[in-house]
Write a structure and sequence with these properties.
ATP-binding protein; 137 residues; alpha+beta; five-stranded antiparallel sheet; ATP binding; Heat Shock Protein 90
């Protein structure tokens, strides 16, 4: 099963909508609840980062018999130092974003924690691609 979503940037009312839809679809497919939680949390964090930092992007979800793969791509500012960005508490979120309750610097660490494989590629000034995988077996 292949799913595709477009994420609008800067719209916090719709933020997390795609990850919620995927969660519901996986429930209907009878996927194990611990696997659903992993993919829902990791995908939500990535989706929020797209809204906060990159003005949106696209999400492709492939549900395969052995794994769920999620690819999130944006045309945002990119991540200059991925290792630094992976540190808990590190954030480039603005004061306004933090006042909304976001930008605590846990997005990338949570993506890593809740996925079985995580690959991030980013080019400053061009955008970021996040690949999340959760194995079902």
């Amino acid at each position: 099963m292949n799913l595709f979503y477009k994420v609008d940037g800067d719209d916090f009312l719709l933020a997390g909508e795609a990850s919620g839809k995927v969660k519901n679809i996986l429930k209907k497919l009878g996927i194990d609840s611990t696997k659903i939680r992993k993919i829902a949390v990791a995908m939500y964090e990535a989706e929020m980062n797209m809204v906060i930092h990159a003005h949106g992007g696209t999400i492709q979800v492939d549900v395969l018999p052995e794994k769920i793969e999620v690819i999130l791509e944006d045309k945002g500012p990119g991540i200059p130092d991925i290792d630094l960005a992976m540190q808990e508490g590190y954030s480039t979120a603005t004061h306004e974003i933090r006042e909304l309750g976001f930008g605590a610097g846990m997005g990338l660490p949570n993506m890593k924690k809740y996925s079985d494989e995580l690959k991030i590629t980013s080019i400053v000034g061009e955008g970021t691609k996040v690949q999340l995988t959760v194995f079902l077996k």
